[in-house]
Amino acid sequence: MTETATPTILALDAAAGACSAALFAAGGVHRREWAAMARGHAQALMPMITSVMADHDYANLDAIAVTIGPGAYTGLRIGVATARGLALAAQLPVIGVGSFKAIARGARAAGTPAGAMLVLLETKRADLYAQSFDTGLEATSEPICLEPDAIAETFASLWTAGEPVIIAGDAAPRLLEVLPEDYRMIVAAGDGLADAAIVAAEAADILLADPAVRDAPLPRPLYLRPPDVSPPTADRHRWRRETGS
User: Shortest CA distance to 52 belongs to which of 109, 82, 11, 98?
Assistant: First the structure.
């Protein structure tokens, strides 16, 4: 493990509609693999990791980062379990990065102007995941899971300042369908999907701001609601332990 001002981090994402791995070194992204996919994350993730680590040794990493959700139940488990396994083998800390923050930061990196932002993530059901952020990309609400009409009502106060609100995330089009016509908004740049390169940069900032995160407990997936299909009994027990349900 290095002790430098610019951490070296392997980051993973398998939380939703994409799968990616990235190596962050010397203050920037050294290697990156990314692909949009609805399924197949388990088969795609390890080859991506092998590719981005091709010329780098795990002994030179400061941490492994991973998106912790919300997102798809299976994808979250794949990503978090892979990060934990690699970290255990290499004796490294794991830094969890929320999917909302990763997408908000990715939208800004893609050229979206600064401003209040509402991030919407797809659940593949009638409801959506949502969380709001201020101009500095600090969260201004807890993550929630509601239907689009209820989200529009819950976050109506974002529009009271009179400034346009940035709408980001892969479920943004579903919210736009129900927002009042007089609401001023900007649709964020980018595809609304998480990217391990952004996760790595966020994790580097977290580690620089608070080196004590090296000793924090392993991150847990943020599900917000149970899986669509009932898993086997052992998995149901694991889900209850992870979520406190």
Answer: 11
Please give the structure tokens belonging to residue 155.
């976050």
pLDDT at 4 over 60: no
CB of 167 within 8 A of CB of 118? yes
Note the pLDDT of residue 19: 98
State pLDDT tens for residues 85-134. Answer: 999 999 999 999 999 999 999 999 999 999 999 999 999 999 999 999 99
Is 0.70 surpassed by the pTM of this model?
A: yes
> Going by DSSP bridges, is the β-strand pair 63-67/185-187 parallel, antiparallel, or unpaired?
unpaired
Question: Is 6 in contact with 30 (CB distance < 8 Å)?
Answer: no
Residue 195 CB-density burial (10 A; 0-12 exposed, 13-18 middle, 19+ buried): buried
Enumerate the H helices of 146-185 as residue ranges: 148-154, 172-176
Would you call 121 helix, strand, or coil by DSSP? strand
Task: State how far the Cα of 55 lies from the Cα of 181, in Å rounded to an integer.
Answer: 52
Structure tokens at 201: 């940069």
Task: Give DSSP secondary structure letters for 57-71.
Answer: -GGG-SEEEEE--SS
Q: What pLDDT sits at residue 202? A: 97
Alpha carbon 26 to its chain's center: 22
- Rounded CA-CA distance 21/44 in Å is 10
Domains of the chain: 9-99+193-243 (3.30.420.40), 112-187 (3.30.420.200)
Question: Tokens 């659940």 map to which residue?
Answer: 123
